[in-house]
Structure formats: C-alpha cells, structure tokens
Amino acid sequence: MNAVLKDTVHTTAPLAVRGLAHCYEGSSVLAGVDLVLEPGSVLGLIGRNGAGKSTLIRAMLGLLEPLAGEAFVFGEPALKLSDDSKARLAYVPQQPEALAWLTAQQMLDYVGRFYPRWDATFARKTLERWKIAPNKLLAKLSPGERQRVDLIRALASQPELLVLDEPAAALDPVARRELLREVALRAGESGTTVLFSTHIVSDLERVASEIAFLHEGRLLLRCGVDETKERYARLWLPAKMSAAAPDNSLSRRRHEDGSLSLVVERDAYGQWPEAAKLPGARIDALGLEDLFVEIAE
Ligand SMILES: Nc1ncnc2c1ncn2[C@@H]1O[C@H](COP(=O)(O)OP(=O)(O)OP(=O)(O)O)[C@@H](O)[C@H]1O
C-alpha cells in the first residue's frame, strides 16, 4: 500500500478503499477502485444503472467481501469493524428491508438503544413532520415512506459518517428537497462526512462538495463539484483535423460527417490539449449532466 494512503486510512479518513475489485458470476463489476473520503466532505457517487455503485458501497462498508482490495472505516478494516465504529456510522441501503414486522416507532426505539448519541426527539418529530404514522407496520408502508423511516433512523443516530445508497430513489420531489437540506445541514453544522450515490445530477449540484463518477468498474473522474465546469469541456474537431485528437480524452464520439467530439481535461498547467488551438477546433463548456452523458454513453 502506498505510504501516503496508508497514513490517511489508518489515522483520519472516515472511509478509504484501495484496489477494490469484485465480480459476479464471472462478470467484473469493480476493477480496482481507489477512494478516500476526507472528514467532513460530501461525496456524490454517480454512475449508470448497473455501474456498481451499490456493490462499491457495500464493499466499502464491509458488507460484502471483495475479490481483491482493502476497505477501511475510521481506519479499521471494514470486514472486522468494531462496535464502536459501527455506532459512528449510518448506512441506508437502496431498499431497506430490515425489521419489517415492527412499526416505525418500534423500529426506531429498538435501534436507538444501540446508538450512544441517539436523538429520540429528532426521530419522533421528523416522523411527524414527514407524515409517517408511527404505529403502522414497516411492511405496510410504501417504498418511499419506508425509505424515509430508514433515513430518520440513520440521521437520529447522529453519525460521523453517513452513507446513503440512492436515498432519493423512492422519494417525491418535496421529500427529496427536505432530505438534501437535512444532509447539507448535518455536513455544515456537525461536520458529518457523507457518501451518497445517485442518478440525479441536480442533487449532486445541490449538496455534494465532490463527485466521483463510476464507469465500467473504475472511478473515471473525481473532483470538486464547482471545479468540473472549469476542468472539463467538449472539444469538437472537424473531420480533416480528427487525426490531431488527443489520445487521453475521457470520451470520443465520431459524427456522421467525420467530425469528432471528445471530453477533454485541462492539464496540470490549466491548458486544454494542443488540438484545441487548431483553427476550426472548438471548445464548448459542459454542464454536469452533459458531462456524465458524454462520458457514460
Ligand atoms: N448478488 C448479485 N449477483 C449477481 N449479479 C449482481 C449481484 N448484485 C449486483 N449484480 C450485478 O452487478 C452489477 C452492478 O450492480 P450494482 O447494484 O452494484 O449497480 P448500481 O450502480 O448500484 O446500479 P443501480 O444504479 O441500478 O442501482 C449489475 O449488473 C448487477 O446486475
């Protein structure tokens, strides 16, 4: 393990993985993922359906043993996490299923016993505010309500590390806004570190400080949300100049007329690739959504 990463993972990083690889039934899903979350950061993990986001999250938290690589939570091996560390983290899976035979209130009361910083008042008030009947069985709640209860469970434990796998998947737009506001508040006021996966680019823009883009088992791009527009752009080259296209573009699309469009990145000196200076070449700014669509297609 490289020395810098080793230092970080064993001391400060709430979450760190190195070289994570996994496959299902012979098909590779993760192909050597390295990722370190700094304390207090809000990282949005984005990628297409089936890109491996849930698998990565589960492996990061030690809920799945990867074929290769290492995962650390608060510096401890994720597969052997102590009860102390477990109490400092909260994870909301994409489809919460646990304890479905309890009512929402019973589940929260039960789970609360395991968390030293459990905020029962927050749990009660948020159930009320989010209009969830406390005495209804979890099994009888709609998927969106169920997801909300699980989010309340996660937030009421006042975690240092909050991991949300597509938290907005079953939420209506109002609930989504409320959740994002709550997440931003926790990150801003309590310094909670947050990792959340999503398909919704506007959610990333609203709350994430950084984004990581998972594509074909690798993290293709990792940078500050505000930085992306500055750092990446679409380079368009007419057909007669396509031979000048840089080799290291993030994506490359050839159009019917032979012209090329590529997603390119500024170099260490802030310069676009040389080809951008050719007469007839054009650099277009890319919004986050366009950037993802260009790369993921
Ligand atoms: N237990 C499993 N057995 C076999 N294949 C699996 C299993 N879990 C996931 N997969 C496959 O691995 C790939 C990645 O799945 P994963 O759920 O990690 O993706 P994702 O990025 O979270 O997708 P989505 O955005 O649709 O939720 C998919 O092709 C999926 O079908």
Automatic annotation (TrEMBL):
Residues 15-241 form the ABC transporter domain. SMART domains: AAA. InterPro entries: AAA+_ATPase, ABC_transporter-like_ATP-bd, ABC_transporter-like_CS, ABC_Transporter_VariousFunc, P-loop_NTPase. The keyword Phosphoprotein does not apply. The keyword Transport applies. PANTHER family: ABC TRANSPORTER ATP-BINDING PROTEIN ALBC-RELATED. This is ABC-2 type transport system ATP-binding protein. It comes from Rhodanobacter glycinis.
